[in-house]
Design brief:
With 329 residues, the chain is an alpha+beta fold. It has helices at 2-20, 22-47, 58-61, 81-91, 126-136, 140-146, 162-195, 203-239, 253-275, 283-288, 318-328; strands at residues 66-69, 96-99, 104-108, 111-115, 152-154, 157-158, 248-251. The protein has eleven helices and seven strands. It is elongated and about 85 Å long.
Length: 329
């Protein structure tokens, strides 16, 4: 009979502890879920525009930071602009170029026909790309024909307006930081998902987890801010050069939405994790009697398990009480 009572007490105590810490467990699982959502959208950012030329994968082809329209690169104000644009296309200049985290893709009309291979620390250099494609199909005659309309300074650079070349310097530096931070964000998000539920056991465990989730949110948000600022500035620089070259620039809406969802969920998950350092009783708090947790967990239980006030009988800590009963059982 004593053994039966001991077993009943131990199981009931564990059940009550779980019920008393239900709020904390809910928030811990919510934190993990938020970082899972952040990871999903970070992966979409990472794979966007990679191998986007595949006809059966329209998702990745629609995820890009910025898309440049060069189908009418020579302004209409220039004589024979239609003919020159046609010749430029014949030489190898594509209608559009779109930029992802790892590479760029190009195509004619609305169809992508080629993507560069993924490259770590990638940054988009339109001068190098345009020059290589224009010269790839050019002969001495056609090069002379286009010299007045597709400006070429030297064999290594296209003469774009100074505000665009200045923006490219920013793009190169910011792209390296953006790439590293997005990759670090993915690496930090995974342990945040796995370890966040552990905060239900002890408030002390919440401290290192708070540091981890803070670094995760900071990394992802910083990468998002850098990417947003960089490509918005680049788009404005291109739009301001319409007198020299007619280049359209379109921000990738999906990419920006995915980045900011990843950042918002990471920030929210971090804030919830921070609150668990001081709020909501942990299982260790309830076992040691430091905190009671939810009062509803104690309702309807007799003094044999917990007294009516929700405290452990005889002022004993639960862990010590359970050892005493087990030895008598």
């Amino acid at each position: 009979m004593a053994g039966t009572t001991a077993t009943f007490y131990a199981v009931s105590a564990d059940t009550i502890i779980k019920r008393a810490t239900l709020t904390r467990r809910t928030f811990a699982l919510l934190t993990s879920f938020l970082f899972l959502v952040s990871l999903i959208f970070l992966i979409l950012v990472e794979v966007g525009n990679v191998n986007a030329q595949h006809p059966h994968d329209p998702v990745r082809s629609s995820i890009y930071f910025i898309k440049l329209d060069l189908s009418h690169i020579i302004p209409r104000s220039v004589p024979n602009s239609v003919l020159i644009n046609s010749i430029a296309r014949t030489l190898g200049l594509h209608d559009f170029y779109q930029v992802g985290l790892w590479n760029f893709c190009e195509g004619f009309g609305d169809k992508i026909d080629h993507c560069s291979g993924p490259k770590t620390m990638y940054w988009f250099n339109p001068i190098e790309i345009l020059l290589s494609e224009l010269l790839a199909g050019a002969t001495s005659t056609t090069l002379l024909l286009l010299a007045n309309y597709v400006p070429i300074l030297t064999a290594s650079a296209v003469a774009l307006p100074s505000n665009i070349t200045d923006a490219l310097t920013l793009v190169r530096i910011a792209s390296h930081w953006m790439f590293a931070l997005f990759l670090a964000g993915v690496c930090l998000t995974v342990p945040s998902i796995v370890l966040a539920p552990l905060s239900v056991y002890s408030r002390w465990a919440s401290l290192p987890l708070t540091v981890l989730t803070f670094l995760t949110a900071l990394t992802v948000t910083t990468a998002t801010i850098i990417a947003s600022a960089m490509f918005i500035i680049f788009r404005k620089a291109i739009h301001s050069a319409t007198d020299t070259l007619n280049i359209g620039a379109e921000i990738g809406t999906k990419m920006f939405v995915f980045m900011w969802i990843a950042s918002a969920t990471a920030i929210l998950g971090c804030l919830i994790q921070v609150t668990q350092c001081c709020c909501c009783a942990s299982r260790r708090d309830v076992r040691t009697g430091r905190r009671k947790g939810s009062k509803k967990a104690y309702a309807g239980h007799g003094a044999g398990i917990l007294d009516g006030a929700g405290t452990w009988p005889a002022g004993e800590k639960p862990r010590a009480r359970r050892r005493f009963i087990s030895s008598n059982g």
